[in-house]
């Protein structure tokens, strides 16, 4: 029988490059939920705001699915920032030439779990 994997939240097609979000995600990975939210609230980046939304959603999923859980008992078990679809646009240049403008997007997956769980 497979062990329980935690509570998950996913945000797809976020309009920001994953390379800008990943350094922020590295700051909160494997941290307690309350500490992770405090870190994200104090960072000025757009990526911190996007990550905070997904982390709050994962915690809300955990608390809704299991009424016995406490917010202080949660931690960020897994956090992935993956590439989403890339929109290709034309960028006009001089002498009738053009460059490609790549508008990147991201998929963020967060799994929160209880601190004392034996899911690992």
User: On the 0-100 scale, what is the average pLDDT?
Assistant: 93
The end-to-end span amounts to 14 Å
- What are the segments in which pLDDT stays under 50 over at least 5 consecutive residues? none
Strand count, sense and closure of the main sheet? 3 strands, antiparallel
CATH topology descriptor: Ribosomal Protein L22, Chain A
Which percent range describes the beta-strand content?
A: 25-35%
State Rg.
18 Å
Please tell me what the overall shape is. Answer: elongated
- Structural class, from helix and strand content? alpha+beta
- CATH homology superfamily: Ribosomal protein L22/L17
CATH architecture: Alpha-Beta Complex
Structural domains: how many: 1
Number of helices: 3
Q: Describe the strand arrangement of the main beta sheet, using strand numbers.
A: 1-5-2
- What order do the SSEs take from the amino end to the carboxyl end, as H and E? EHHHEEEE
Query: Helix share of residues?
Result: 25-40%
* Strand segment count: 5
Q: What is the top-level CATH class?
A: Alpha Beta
Provide a descriptive summary of the structure in words.
- The longest helix is centred in the middle third of the chain and has 20 residues.
- The protein has a single domain, classed as Ribosomal protein L22/L17 (Ribosomal Protein L22, Chain A, Alpha-Beta Complex), CATH 3.90.470.
- With 120 residues, the protein is an alpha+beta fold.
- The strands form 2 sheets. Strands 1-5-2 form a 3-stranded antiparallel beta sheet. It has a two-stranded antiparallel sheet with strand order 3-4.
- It has 3 helices and 5 strands.
- A hairpin with a 5-residue loop joins strand 3 and strand 4.
- Part of the 50S ribosomal subunit.
């Amino acid at each position: 029988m497979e062990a329980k994997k935690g509570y998950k939240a996913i945000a797809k097609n976020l309009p920001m490059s994953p390379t800008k979000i990943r350094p922020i995600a590295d700051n909160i990975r494997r941290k307690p939920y309350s500490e992770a939210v405090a870190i994200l609230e104090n960072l000025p980046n757009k990526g911190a705001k996007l990550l905070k939304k997904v982390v709050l959603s994962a915690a809300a999923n955990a608390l809704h699915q299991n009424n016995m859980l406490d917010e202080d008992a949660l931690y960020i078990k897994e956090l992935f920032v993956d590439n989403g679809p890339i929109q290709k646009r034309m960028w006009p240049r001089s002498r009738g030439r053009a460059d490609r403008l790549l508008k990147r997007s991201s998929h963020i997956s967060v799994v929160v779990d209880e601190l004392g769980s034996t899911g690992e």
